[in-house]
C-alpha cells in the first residue's frame, strides 16, 4: 500500500493534520475509502466491538452509516507522541433504528500508526446522548455548518 502522509514520528503540526485528514475522510461516509487508511490487519475496538482487517472494517462502517443518518463528525487532537495520536471527537446523527431521533456521540480514540502512515490500531470509546426533547434535534451544533464547516464552529463551554 502506498504511504499516507503525514508519517510518524508526529510533530504537533503533523499530528493535527493527520486528525483533520481523518475527520474529512470519515465525513465522506465511504467505508472503502476509510478502510484504505488502515493497515490490512488493523486492529479495532469500537465501543464493545473488537475486529481487525479491511473486510471487517468495511462491513462495520457500512452497518454504522446505515444506522447513523445525517452523520457529521468533528475530531480534535488531544495528545500525540511518536507514532501515536489521541483524539477527542463529537458527531451528530439521526438514528435509523430509533425513529430517526437525533443523537450526539462524545468520544475518545487512541491511534497507532505504522511507518507508512497507515493506522494499525484504533481504540474508540464513545457515549451517545439524545439531542433535544425526545431526540427532536433541538440544540444541534452542526446543523447550520455541515461537515465542511465543523472546524469553524465554536464548541459550547464544557463540551471541548
Compact overview of the structure:
The chain contains 3 helices and 6 strands.
Structure characterization notes:
This protein is an alpha+beta fold. The protein is built from 3 helices and 6 strands. Strand 3 and strand 4 form a beta hairpin. It starts with 11 loop residues before the first helix and ends in a 30-residue tail after the last strand.
Assign a percent range to the helix content.
Answer: 10-25%
Q: Taking all residues together, what is the mean pLDDT?
A: 96
The proportion of strand residues reads: 35-45%
Number of helices: 3
Give the overall form. Answer: globular
How are the SSEs ordered, and which strands pair?
Elements: H1 12-26, H2 31-35, E1 38-46, E2 49-52, H3 54-67, E3 68-81, E4 84-95, E5 101-113, E6 119-130
Which features does this protein show?
globular; alpha+beta; 160 residues; single chain; 6 strands
